Amino acid sequence: MWILFAFGSALFAGLTAILAKCGIRNTDSNVATALRTGVVLVFSWLMVFMVGAQSEIRDISAKVLIFLILSGLSTGISWLCYFKALQIGDINKVTPIDKSSTVITMLLAFIFLREEITWLKFVSMILIGIGTYLMIQKKETKEKAEDKKWLLYAVGSAVFASLTSILGKIGIQDVNSNLGTAIRTAVVLVMAWIVVFVTGKQNTVNNIDRKSWLFLILSGFATGGSWLCYYRALQTGPASVIVPIDKLSILVTVAFSYIVFHEKLSLKSGTGLLLIVVGTLALLI
User: Fold this and answer.
1) Which parts of the sequence belong to the EamA domain (predicted)?
2) What is the pLDDT of residues 121-180, one digit of tens each?
């Protein structure tokens, strides 16, 4: 059953990137992250009450709570980096880097969770790495330094997304996955709004148009659905396999980026995407 939740997470995650890109066109990325997180928080706590898991909150140990909080902080940093990268970069270049967190996660799972790295996993890591490199290469002349800021944010997103998976795996072992997701989301919300106020962007909320509001809300719902599926899968399945499946959301993102933003893949980028998919699917063998 965990594999179905993992694929569900990939579908919703792919939709999240597209909807978020639409919502942050005319909105500060930090403000957009904070607003989206509010939607995810409401969604996640509704699920907690629907499954009757709210009473379990008093049974959560201090250790589990610490890991959930750390996972939430990592998620918050990853989101802030990811949506900043989306705002200033192309989806077809930002998303592959974010999805490369698969490789980092497998390494961290080996170190901290003692999940074995077989020869097949090693080959998959190589394919995903090469595929990511091919997808972010440009045919045109070299980018200016200021145009490469999206790359730094995208790499930051990948690193902290990997930490999120490992910390989340440890934190939800002895707690209902819906409750764990809700607690983590609350941490992300607090962190996101702190960043908004520190950067002095809170007043820009009044300037958000209705269309952007709609896409931000829909993006929040998509994220909520992805998280609930993802952490339900993590609770019973291996992190080194679930994370790669979740990263197949890149196929959904690329398809919709072509339809919505008319972002086309070059031959090199298409080859890179193929390698990423092959490497990811090989992990399921």
Assistant:
1) 1-136, 149-284
2) 899 889 988 998 888 876 444 555 556 788 899 999 999 988 988 887 777 777 888 888
User: Are the CB atoms for 244 and 233 separated by under 8 Å?
Assistant: no
Element at 199 (helix H, strand E): none
Identity of residue 10: A
- Indicate the residue type of 132: T
Identify the CA nearest to 32 among candidates 41, 20, 44: 20
CA 15 vs CA 41, 63, 95, 215, 233: distances in Å: 18, 34, 12, 11, 19
pTM of the model: 0.76
Three-class DSSP category at 75: helix
3/67 Cα distance (integer angstroms) = 24
Return the closest-CA partner of residue 17 out of 106, 71, 119, 97. 97
